[in-house]
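== Item description ==
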Amino acid sequence: MPPTAYYKVRALLDVFCDLVIPCVATTLVLHYSGRWRLGFPSIPPYIASIMIYFAVRVKYADFLDEREAQKLNARLLSRVVGKLPSNVDVIPLNAGPAGSLFARWIFLTSSTSTRLQL
C-alpha cells in the first residue's frame, strides 16, 4: 500500500470517530429511552452530541496535559483569551503584514460593540 493510502485511512478513521460514534450513541440513547422517535425531531440531538463530544475531548486532553505537567513538576503555558470567537482579535498581533491587513478588515467589518482596539 502506498504511503498516501495510510493518510486516507487515518482521515477516514478520524471522521468515523468524530462524527459516527457520537451519532450512534445518540441513536441508541434515543431509541432505548423511548422518549423520542427517530426522525426529524432527533436532528438537534445529533448536532448537540457532536458538539458535546468535541467539548469533552478537548477538556479531557486539557486534563491529561495538566496531569502530565504535575508529574513533571512543570507549568503549562498561559493561554491568550480573546474577546471574539476563535480569538480572531488576537491573531493580528503576531501575523506580520498579512496580519495587519486582517486586522484592518476585522476593524472595518466589526460592529461598534465588538470593535477592536488597534
